[in-house]
Structures are given as C-alpha cells and as structure tokens.
Amino acid sequence: MTQLSAPGRPLRPRGKLLQEDARRHHRALLLQSLFRDGPASRADLARATGLTRVTVSDLVGGLVEEGLVEELGARPGGRVGKPATLVGFAPDAADVVCLDLSADGRVCGALVAPTGRVRLRRSAAVKGRRGDDAVALVLRLARDLVALAERPVLGVGVGSPGVVDPGGTVLDAPNLGWHGTPLSRALHERLGLPVHVANDANTAALGEHTFGRADSGHLMVLRVGTGVGAGLVLGGALLHGHGSAAGEVGHVVVDEDGEECACGRTGCLETLLAVPRLRARVDGLDPAARADALAGTGRRLGAALAPVVGALNLRHLVLSGPPDLLDGPLAGATADALRRRLMPVVGDDLVLRTSDLGEDVVLVGAAVLVLNAELGVS
Amino acid sequence: MTQLSAPGRPLRPRGKLLQEDARRHHRALLLQSLFRDGPASRADLARATGLTRVTVSDLVGGLVEEGLVEELGARPGGRVGKPATLVGFAPDAADVVCLDLSADGRVCGALVAPTGRVRLRRSAAVKGRRGDDAVALVLRLARDLVALAERPVLGVGVGSPGVVDPGGTVLDAPNLGWHGTPLSRALHERLGLPVHVANDANTAALGEHTFGRADSGHLMVLRVGTGVGAGLVLGGALLHGHGSAAGEVGHVVVDEDGEECACGRTGCLETLLAVPRLRARVDGLDPAARADALAGTGRRLGAALAPVVGALNLRHLVLSGPPDLLDGPLAGATADALRRRLMPVVGDDLVLRTSDLGEDVVLVGAAVLVLNAELGVS
C-alpha cells in the first residue's frame, strides 16, 4: 500500500515525480518485453526497448530484487566469446486474486499466476443475496483467496455482470441488485489491495487477447450464457465506449420478426442466442434437425454481426459459452454467413472459433486487468 | 528534413535521445492543452499538464521562438497582485497543404490553417489519369499549394479513396488505378515535406472529431457518395483495423433480398445508400413519395447499423454527403430505427446528424493528420 504524505505537503518535488514516472514507464516496457517475448539478455532488452544498457541493467536489478524477474543463466548454444545471461519474467513471483461474478447463482474465484495458470479455485453460492449482501459475499470470497495465497498478491481482478464504469463502479447489474455500486472502492477499502473491476465480457476479451489464441489485437469475444454480451479489444486496447457500455449487444434488436424478449421488445440478440432460448429450440430434436436449427441460428447471427466485423475489420471473433451448442453447426454457419456478407479483404482473414479457455476466460481476464494496471503488461 | 548521421555512427548518445523524446512529449502536451482548451498562463499549463513551472517556461519559450505559440498579454479581469500573462496557440503560424482525392473526377486541395479554416482552394480534373499519371497530378497540385503558401508549411495531409496502410501506401483504389501505390513516399521524396495519407472516410472522421461538433471521441462518420465508406474514432483514436480496412462497410451485405451490386453480390450497403442509387430511386417522385422512399432507406440503414452503434456504444453518428438526400426523412428515420433497436443506455445518448463541415470534412481532416503527427495535437 502507498504511504500517503501529510495533507497539503507533496511527498516529493515535481521534478523527482516526473523522473519516477519515466522510470515506471521504462520498467513496464521491460516487463512487457519479457512477458510477451520470453527470456532475453540485457542487451536484447536494450535493443527491444530503445533504452540504454545502463538503464536496462539498473531496472532489471531492481526487478530481480522485487522477485518479478529472475536470472536464468547463460544463453544455450555455443557462440564465441562470453555467453549472454538471460533473465525472464518470474511466473511464481506473485498471485492474482481473480473473481468471476457472471455465473448463474455462484460467485467464482481463483488464484491465478501471472502466466494465466489457475492455481486454485473457490466459489460460493449467491442464494439470492443482493445489493450490500452480495458485495459482502464477494468480499468474503476475495478474503479467503488472499488468505490462501502462498505468494505476494499483486491485486484483485473482478469480472462483473452489467455496465461497469472506468472507476470500477457497477452502474447496473440487476441480477445482483447493484445500481451504482462502488464495488472496486468497497473491496479496496476492506482488503487494502489494488482492485480492478470490469464487465465480464470485456474481461473475457482481455483474457483471450493475452492468454488465448486471439492475440491479433483486433478481436470480439461474444459471451453466450443466460444473457449475451460482447467484449472488444481494438488496436490492442479494450474498448469502453461513450457510456462504458461497449459490447452491450444482448438487447440490440436484430430481427423485428423475432421472439419476444424479457426487456419488452422483439427480436433482441438474446432471443436468438441466449442459452435457455437455444436449449428450448433444440432440446429433444434428432441430430439432423438439431444441426439444422443451430445452423439457422448461426446464419442469423452472421447476418447481424457482419456490419460490426466489417466496420471494425476484426481478425478474431471468439464465441464463448456451452460448446455443445456453439461448436459445430452454429459456429460453422456463422462463419459462412459472415464470409458471404463481407469483402474478401476482411472476410478472408477472419478467424471465427470458440474459446479454448472455456469457463476460465473471465477469471484469467481478471488477472489481465491487474497485470495491466499494476505492471503495464498485457 | 532530418539530417542523418554517418552510417553506423549514432548522432547522439542514447541518454540524450531519451531526454529529447521526453522533451518532444512534453512539448506536445503543452500544444495539445493550448489547442483544445485555448489560451492559458504558464501556471495554468503547469497545473493542466503536471509539468514543473520551470519546464513549462522553458518549453513555451521555445514554442514562442518557433512561432507556434504567441504571447497574448495580461489575463483580463481585476485580480489582486500581478496579473498572469496568457499564451495561446498561434493560428497564423503555419499552413497545412491538404488534399482530398475522393471527389468524382477531380482532385481537390487547400491551404488549411491549424484552426481548421480553409484559406485557399485549388483543384484539378483527373481526366482519366490512372496509376503513375494520377500520382503526378496529385504531386503537381501539392506543389502549387506549397508555392502559394505565405506561411511555413507544416506538412501535407491526404485523404485518399481505398484502403491505405499505416505507412501511407494505397493498397487498393481502383478509380485511380492504384494498387500498392506508395503515395506518401512518392510525395515526400519530391516535396521534402512530412506527408501523411489516410483513407478519405477515416480522414473525415478525424475532421469531425477535431473541428466538427462530434468531439466525444466515440464517433462514426458515414460518407455517402459514389460509394459508401465509414471512418471510426473510438476512445479518441482513429481505428485502423486488422488489415487497415476498418470502416470499409460499402460492400457489407445488409439485405440479401436487395439490389444487385457492381461487386457481383446482392444487397451491399452501397446498393441501399450510394448517391446514384438514391437518386435513381427518388428522382421524379412527388415530395410525399420522395420523403417516404428516403425514410424507407433510413429505416433499413438504422437496422443495419444498430449492431455497430450498440457494440461500440457510439455517441455520434455523422452522415456526410448530399444534404438534399441525407438531411430530413432519411436521417430522421435512421435515428428512429436505431433508437427502437438499441438499449436506452446507448440509444438515448446517441446523436445522429449530418456533417456541418460539408464537403470540406476530408480537407480539414487531412489537416488533422498533419497536426496530429507533427505537433501531437488533435
């Protein structure tokens, strides 16, 4: 935790602060290089980052002391002269406490390594808790995970349902009874750790971008569950949108002749794609009829998403949800419909697939929220 | 132009370069503050940018010497003590040579002030020139404008049709016979000035963002002409997309039962919205039937764009093209259709309007390309 100075008295003169700002920026450059590209020598790092050898050695020394970077010995291979010593991002330096509040009736948590590996899981039933009671439940789960950590905890990352503002206030999550609930502040005050909260679909998009196979920096993750929501990483950065509601596509009307929606309108994307609707449409059908029905849904999904994929020139469209529904005819028909509707320059390069990260995509994305904010890596 | 050092011999030691990097960054912070927020005292600037008073005074001194910033005298109003001296961005310090290559059969150019004011215009007929001949025509127009400038020329900005890569190579502009044409390099080599090229719709989006009333940082400009294309500024930054083709929505199929398109498919957005198609559909109709037909087009446009506006949580959607077609029933019906199809949290805040900048939107956007790259302002 940061030690604050006495009121009205700055901790350090301004010039010093600016130097520290540059130092923090350079430190993040080095960590990012080791995180994305793997072990490197100090000379490699100087070349990759444009920093001087002296600055690199100085900063690497500090990072080794902190335990975030480790010495890995001489570079393998028989070059002439003194072999370079490699350093690498230390995967066991820290844990991240990660929470996924988007599951139906449960809050799920995990300790996640900076490599994205889930070390340990815990969860708790919501049992109808709402408002402050739901916040208290989340706090308990986070506290349990902090207590279970065997390494320093870098911070707490949370993927929450609903619209979340940049300060970590949940503007609207009806299922948990949260309306303008300052979740990030509440957890930070009680845990004394850095806390970062984002919408679950946005968190999933960060997870795919950093730990999945969708690292192009131009991707949309469509989460299909009880509801439907998307997260967008564009040009490598998470899109928030004007009112923090980017990706909220579940209640966009995509078919005016579609089914009635709980929101009172007709033909929202959720009526096409939400899991309960899909199950109701295909359960009990024989395999051929089931495949037909899922392909029909895929065709309509492709038609609805073509303007989005085209306007954004996306590289990856990732479907995240039950594989028995999404994998196969639905994903195939969505991809076909998109290609038929897009210019070759966009459609040919598009990769549509289901997420390999499965249900963990929000948890590992929550780790990215923390890695990004605290270390500058993603 | 930059004076290059002898091969293999760095011009300056690294540490010095890093300091210059910081200096350039701080200089851009000051210019951006004066550009966006208007005149300020040195103390105001220190507060706004977080730089020290000493750094601000030093940098402002340099900017006044260069002529980019001017002393404006004492702040009006009767405060006690010595009144603060204001400095401001100098609108007459420089000209930007701006080119719009998206018009039908003409290349249009202008000298544009850093305030976005068009000082002087020139244009030339294309007369079927293609490939290198078209590049030569553009070069001649740019040269004429450089010769006409009465102030230092900050650089050359170009809005070109087609997909343009980040290095200013036009990947594909069939009307000018350009395929992989290094337009930026060709102009830079012959003019000896900084040159920045982008797609015309992307350039228009920058123009609206900086000089129009769509300064939210979350906007799409839809250009409606012989073809249809969009430009997106998201989170304040121009979106390029995976293959530099963001905004290329003209040949996205939006209606499988629509009209046949020149590209060989059916129901592309261009068949709905391109000016020749619109005119063919409404010319000769009586006013009521014409309004009906335009409103029908607007309804279909709103349906096609709803997933885009929803996914991106846009604040501004700007239609740019002939006002007699776009203003009125078409824009009104598009807005209605969007609101009906979007969640209130997104739809209520959406502003849909036609561009005030008219046909100048690409020219002033081309100035933003240069201001942004050369001074760090936008």
TrEMBL record, chains A, B:
Transmembrane segments: none annotated. GO terms for biological process: regulation of DNA-templated transcription. It holds the Pfam family ROK. PROSITE patterns: ROK. Signal peptide: none annotated. Residues 37-71 form the HTH iclR-type domain. GO terms for molecular function: DNA binding. It comes from the Bacteria. PANTHER family: BIFUNCTIONAL UDP-N-ACETYLGLUCOSAMINE 2-EPIMERASE_N-ACETYLMANNOSAMINE KINASE, ROK (REPRESSOR, ORF, KINASE) FAMILY. Belongs to the ROK (NagC/XylR) family. This is ROK family protein. The lineage of its organism: Bacteria, Bacillati, Actinomycetota, Actinomycetes, Motilibacterales.
